[in-house]
Amino acid sequence: MAASVSASTLLAPAPLPATPPAEKLPLAAVALGLLALLVAATAADPARARLSMYVALFLLSIGTLTWAALKFGRPPAGVRHDHLWQRASTSRGAIAWALGVALTGFYVVLYWFPAYLENLIRTLDPLSQLLRGKPADQWFLYGTFYTLAVLLMGGRALWKYRHSRYQLIRTGSVMFFQLGFSFLLPGLLLLLQKPEFYFSYFWPLKYDYLFPGTVSYLLRDGQALGVFMVFWGAVMSFLATPVLTYFFGKRWYCSWVCGCGGLAETAGDPYRHLADKSRAAWRWEVRLIYPILGFIILVTVLLWVAASGAVPAVQPLAEGLSKTYGFVIGSVFSGVIGVGFYPIMGARVWCRFGCPMAAYLGLLQKHFSRFRITTNGGQCISCGNCSNVCEMGIDVKQYAQRGEPIIRAACVGCGLCSTACPRGVLNLENGPRTGRYQASALIHSDSLRILS
Question: Signal sequence span per UniProt (predicted)?
Answer without folding.
Answer: none
